[in-house]
Amino acid sequence: MNAGTPIVEVYDLGNTGYRHVWDLQKHLQNALIEQKRRPDHIAYGPDDLADMLLFVEHPHVYTLGKSGNADHLLRSAEELSDWDAEFVPVDRGGDITYHGPGQVVGYPILDLDRHFTDIHKYLRFLEEVIIHTVAHFGIQAGRSEGLTGVWVEDRKIAAMGIRSSRWVTMHGFALNVEPDLSYFSNIVPCGIQDKQVTSIYEETGTKPSLEEVKTVLMQSFDKVFNVKTVQKGSRKELEEKFSYFYKAE
User: Fold this and answer.
1) What CA–CA distance (Å, rounded) separates 132 from 1?
2) pTM over 0.90
3) What is the maximum span of the chain, computed from C-alpha positions, in angstroms?
4) Would residue 190 show up in a list of annotated catalytic residues for this protein?
5) Which of 150, 223, 151, 174 is CA-nearest to residue 55?
6) What's the CA gap between 130 and 132, in Å, rounded?
7) How far is 237 from 233, CA to CA, in rounded Å?
8) Do 227 and 7 touch, CB atoms closer than 8 A?
9) Under CATH, which architecture does the 8-37+48-241 domain have?
10) Do the beta carbons of residue 11 and residue 236 sit within 8 Å?
11) Which of 3, 68, 145, 193 places its Cα 20 to 30 Å from the Cα of 240?
12) Over the stretch 134-164, which tens digit does the pLDDT of each residue have?
């Protein structure tokens, strides 16, 4: 890394509800957008907000992208309550997916004007981050033609869905480390009928800690995006830092 390498600040939000983190992402995205609108703005100025990568583990939740098919949720709201899960339609791309304990969910809040303004390239880069990460744990993964995400043969190990506004991203990826895969039986994952879902544990029989996986994800993010990720703190520290525009629930 050289002196001009972009910094990406990493915040670990721990186990936090989906709606709360969605709201936080929107505030962070808007802050980066407003920053670019300042007439005196200079990219990477000393007072600029940096790009961010948020790590989180969500309680059980099913989310449906804006172009998704609600019929791909196979349970009623009453049935979901028996699974201690909720259903949230959201503003990202993609279809329906599941988030829950045992996943590492990553939300990059990046100003792509600092990197490259190409959404398809951005998605491929996110996939490459996951491919590098699972390779560290002995898994040979790749892409499936015409489909977003990361696959081990015909089994999906990481799902992705993003939203971009004025080239500032939000939402991101969910990597299955050791979630309860039975929760995927309540949906048609990502709207794909004939594919299975897998995890690092399912493929290897080992259970790396979520902390270890996050460390490898940061290293992979550095390599693929040519940035320097810097661990900055927790959800509390992030909310305090941006308290001038974000009010915690």
Assistant:
1) 18
2) yes
3) 55
4) yes
5) 174
6) 5
7) 6
8) yes
9) 2-Layer Sandwich (3.30)
10) no
11) 3
12) 999 999 999 998 889 999 999 999 999 999 9
